[in-house]
Design brief:
6 helices; 3-stranded antiparallel sheet; 4-stranded parallel sheet; alpha/beta
Length: 207
């Protein structure tokens, strides 16, 4: 570490980070530090500093969702899901697909959610489709599509437009999208399209 005095109130450092063998792995030039304004004779740290903060280990953090964007309807299933995940959530912002009908709607809703949470640690989409194919009308099918695969598509476009770059856990919840336990009596093909789009998004955007 080298230091250059700029004034009585500030200093500029050149920092070198090394591994245990002394090999330089990173260097920081012109690291500027300014003196703290005195407040009530506070002098413990005369200059602004960066300090190490203790965080949970990876094992302790496993399974936690943190700041979560929850894409779900306000129905009984959503309530049960949130109750089951109590303790894993941090702050939660909720989007209801049935209230969002355009790309602009999603853009504004996701922007507001991100501003509320600060960033997304997880995005949990619960837009699973349950439909009686023998009774469903075309309008009902279109509505279910807009709230599942269509919603996921517009959500992904909003995230791209907002330039979300942070590492995000992207989770989709489905029911009867595929045979899992071999006890399923009904398969919902639209859920397969919804899940397939989710896999495509995950592969296109590694974060």
């Amino acid at each position: 570490t080298s230091i250059a005095e700029v004034s009585v109130d500030s200093k500029v450092y050149t920092l070198a980070l090394t591994d245990k063998d002394g090999k330089v792995v990173a260097a920081v030039k012109d690291y500027f530090v300014k003196k703290v304004h005195r407040l009530n004779n506070y002098t413990e740290y005369p200059y602004y500093t960066m300090q190490w903060q203790k965080t949970e280990t990876a094992a302790a953090n496993d399974g936690k969702l943190g700041r979560t964007l929850l894409v779900a309807e306000q129905d009984g299933f959503s309530a049960r899901l949130q109750e089951a995940l109590t303790g894993r959530f941090g702050k939660v912002a909720t989007l209801q697909p049935s209230r969002l009908h355009s790309e602009e709607d999603y853009l504004n809703a996701v922007r507001a959610a991100r501003e509320s949470l600060g960033a997304f640690d997880s995005i949990l989409c619960c837009n699973t489709v349950e439909m009686d194919g023998a009774k469903a009308t075309v309008s009902e099918f279109n509505q279910l599509y807009e709230q599942s695969a269509g919603s996921l598509f517009l959500l992904s476009k909003a995230l791209m437009k907002l330039g979300v770059k942070e590492k995000v856990k992207f989770l989709l919840e489905t029911r009867n999208a595929a045979i899992v336990s071999k006890t399923e009596t009904v398969i919902q093909p639209l859920n397969g399209a919804y899940m397939g789009l989710g896999r495509c998004i995950e592969q296109e955007f590694a974060n």
